[in-house]
């Protein structure tokens, strides 16, 4: 007989680099201002990896993962699968999941990377959840980590993109749970590839392969820095965020008043505030920390979820909704009855 399971979040962890970069710091590098950045994005500061340090995407993920495992009371030897979400992997290949495995001294469990940018953590969580539901695995380590600062164009030309992003990592340990009314109730995933190049970094690619990059590398080539059609992304984000949160509520027979905590991907405070208003949510029902970290892409939801939990804002029985939109375009939501 096939037994059905659900999955619960057993532990959360986060790690951000020590180096704080304020809006005034950025103003010294490009034509921008603290007031512009706060007014348009809500961001006051973000963390950047110190380029002289050994830190990277995988190693930040390890720090977040170790904290999550410790809080879950689960040994690294009991991890059955690693799912690693990032848009800034340490290498073009292999993925950062196997690097985490090596750095943590985890044996030969499978490790896979999810490449869904801002929605990466929601996609990764859903992958982990599916393996647990089917009884294939019991404990899955889900990590979102980003080292973005090294690739940003920190001149006036790149200011629209560069003032938004930051570095950091978050992790969750997902564990098998028997009560089907609790844990991850549903995940909802979408993508629309026709907008793939509206928020992207286009080089190096298989069309402009790595050896070509070194032969005629031009630091001024815009392809080597992230590109974002900010207004198109913004317009799509507010619509898709709303749709996918509505989808999660409808699937579970809930209304916005049933949400105890909404953790939106921290893309722009104005997007989160628009969604909050649209669903008529109070400040207590929504958690934002973009002011402190900027947009950490696949790491933003696990960092925010971890902080909300640390602050005692998420408790047993709460309905927690995670929602994201970003490059791809991809978007998704997850509704969790907290255990
Ligand atoms: O996480 C992935 C998903 N990403 C997102 O969801 C981001 C979505 N987009 C956004 O958040 C916004 O589009 C931005 C924050 C990126 C930009 O805000 P905006 O209100 O859409 O600004 P804009 O691009 O329309 O630019 C308005 C003005 C322009 O000047 P003019 O043409 O009006 O004279 C820009 O040149 O602001 C200028 N500008 C800046 N000024 C100071 C653009 N970037 C900056 C800057 N500092 N950093």
Question: Care to give the gist of this entry?
Answer:
The protein has 339 residues and is an alpha/beta fold. The protein has helices spanning 23-27, 34-41, 57-72, 96-104, 120-133, 159-162, 210-215, 230-251, 269-278, 290-293, 300-310, and strands spanning 6-15, 20-22, 45-47, 81-85, 111-114, 139-146, 168-177, 183-191, 199-200, 227-228, 261-264, 319-326, 330-337. It has a 5-stranded mixed sheet, with helices on both faces. Strands 8-13-12-11 form a 4-stranded mixed sheet, sandwiched between helices. It has a two-stranded antiparallel ribbon with strand order 2-3.
Helices, strands, pairings?
Layout: E1 6-15, E2 20-22, H1 23-27, H2 34-41, E3 45-47, H3 57-72, E4 81-85, H4 96-104, E5 111-114, H5 120-133, E6 139-146, H6 159-162, E7 168-177, E8 183-191, E9 199-200, H7 210-215, E10 227-228, H8 230-251, E11 261-264, H9 269-278, H10 290-293, H11 300-310, E12 319-326, E13 330-337
Parallel strand pairs: 4-5, 4-6, 11-12
Antiparallel strand pairs: 1-7, 2-3, 6-7, 8-13, 9-10, 12-13
Helix pairs in contact: 3-4, 8-9
Oxa(dethia)-CoA is lined by residues 32, 36, 40-41, 118, 159-160, 163-164, 230-231, 233-234, 237, 267-268, 271, 295, 326.
Folded structure, characterized:
The chain is of the alpha/beta class and 339 residues long. It folds into 2 domains: 6-180, Peroxisomal Thiolase, Chain A, domain 1 (3-Layer(aba) Sandwich), CATH 3.40.47; 184-337, Thiolase/Chalcone synthase (Peroxisomal Thiolase, Chain A, domain 1, 3-Layer(aba) Sandwich), CATH 3.40.47.10. Helices cover 32% and strands 22% of the residues. It has 11 helices and 13 strands. The chain has a 5-stranded mixed sheet with strand order 1-7-6-4-5, with helices on both faces. The longest helix is centred in the C-terminal third of the chain and has 22 residues, at 230-251. The protein is globular, with a radius of gyration of 19 Å. 48% of the residues are buried. The mean pLDDT is 95. Bound molecules: oxa(dethia)-CoA. Residues 32, 36, 40-41, 118, 159-160, 163-164, 230-231, 233-234, 237, 267-268, 271, 295, 326 line the site of oxa(dethia)-CoA.
């Amino acid at each position: 007989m096939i037994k059905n399971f659900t999955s619960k979040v057993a532990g959360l962890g986060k790690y951000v680099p020590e180096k704080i970069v304020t809006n005034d710091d950025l103003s010294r590098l490009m034509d921008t201002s603290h007031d512009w950045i706060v007014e348009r994005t809500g961001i006051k500061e973000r963390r950047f990896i110190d380029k002289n340090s050994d830190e990277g995407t995988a190693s930040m993920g390890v720090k977040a993962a170790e904290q999550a495992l410790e809080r879950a009371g689960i040994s690294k030897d009991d991890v059955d699968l690693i799912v690693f979400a990032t848009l800034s992997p340490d290498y073009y290949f292999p993925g950062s999941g196997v690097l985490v495995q090596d750095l943590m001294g985890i044996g030969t469990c499978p490790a896979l990377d999810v490449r869904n940018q801002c929605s990466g953590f929601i996609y990764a969580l859903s992958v982990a959840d599916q393996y647990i539901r089917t009884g294939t695995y019991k404990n899955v380590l889900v990590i979102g980590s980003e080292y973005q600062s090294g690739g940003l164009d920190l001149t006036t030309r790149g200011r629209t993109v560069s003032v938004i992003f930051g570095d950091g990592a978050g992790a969750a340990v997902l564990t098998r749970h028997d009560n089907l009314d609790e844990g991850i109730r549903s995940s909802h995933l979408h993508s629309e590839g026709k907008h793939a190049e509206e928020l992207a970094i286009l080089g190096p690619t298989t069309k402009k392969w790595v050896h070509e990059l070194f032969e005629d590398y031009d630091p001024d080539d815009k392809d080597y820095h992230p590109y974002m059609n900010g207004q198109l992304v913004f317009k799509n984000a507010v619509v898709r965020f709303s749709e996918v949160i509505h989808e999660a509520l409808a699937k579970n027979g809930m209304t916005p008043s049933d949400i105890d905590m909404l953790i939106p991907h921290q893309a722009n405070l104005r997007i989160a505030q628009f969604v909050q208003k649209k669903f008529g949510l109070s400040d207590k029902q929504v958690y934002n920390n973009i002011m402190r970290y900027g947009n950490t892409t696949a790491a933003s939801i696990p960092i925010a979820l971890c902080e909300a939990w640390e602050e005692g804002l998420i408790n047993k029985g709460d309905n927690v909704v995670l929602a994201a939109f970003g490059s791809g375009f991809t978007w998704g939501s997850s509704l969790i009855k907290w255990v």
